[in-house]
Amino acid sequence: MTYVKAGGMGSTCGTDAGKTALRKEQRKVRDFVPERVRATLDARILANLQASSEYQDADLVLTYVSMDSEVDTRTIIAEALESGKRVAIPRCTAEKTLEFVEISSLQGLHQSRFGMLEPDASLPALKTPEFVGSICLVPGLVFDGLGNRIGYGGGYYDRFLAFYPGHKIALVRTRQLSCNELPHEAHDIAIDLLVTDQRIWRVNNNFK
Predict the structure, then answer these.
(1) How far apart are CA 22 and CA 43, in angstroms?
(2) Which of 77, 101, 120, 179 has the greatest number of C-beta atoms within 10 Å?
């Protein structure tokens, strides 16, 4: 697998618009891609993820459950479980952050008020020490070469990632890459690795 440092990233250029405008614009870009094309690109992303040492070395995968036109994580979940890895998915808390709950399948999940699939509230959440050596797949609408991302606006992932000790990885179709630096604030947490349908981009110089 080829790792490439950020810089000179060929992509669709971003804009200087605010985050809200970017979210609206990038949703349209993502939704416009035909489902058949998305499936082909997502299969390449999965192959690149599985070929990475970060994925291979991780015994625990933290991941969202994909919806609508997001990069498919349901196949990733199924194949990770089949290969013997542990998988945990997020649940929103009253403190507006995330906690992750280990699952054995996608059965028995319910839809949260934000539309995402979550585990039942009665199931115990993993503790921070259990995240050591794991990877976390982080959703987003658009990413830049510094690992900045435009998410969905709630700040849940940034609050969780501020204390997360593992590798932060984004699954990205090439059209979701911006060659312009995205607007970001001090509390926004950058991604370590972008796994695209073409290659893996190393975007954090501190990433080991």
Answers:
(1) 26
(2) 77
DSSP state of 130: G
Mean pLDDT of 188-200: 93
Buried b (16+ CB within 10 A) or exposed e, 161-196: beebebbbbbbbbbbbbbeeebbbeeebbbbbbbbb
Q: Answer yes or no: are the C-beta atoms of 166 and 133 closer than 8 Å.
A: yes
If you write DSSP's letter for every residue of 2-23 in order, what string do you get? -EEESSS--S----SS-HHHHH
To the nearest 10 degrees (0 to 180), the angle between helices 74-82 and 35-51 is 40
Res 208: pLDDT: 38
**189 close to 204: Cβ distance less than 8 angstroms:** no
15 touches 22 (CB < 8 A): yes
Q: How many CB atoms lie within 10 A of CB 18?
A: 10
Residue 68: count of CB within 10 angstroms of its CB: 8
Tokens describing residue 161: 């990632």
As a whole number, mean pLDDT of residues 110-121 equals 84
Torsion angle, alpha carbons of 43, 44, 50, 51, to 10: 160
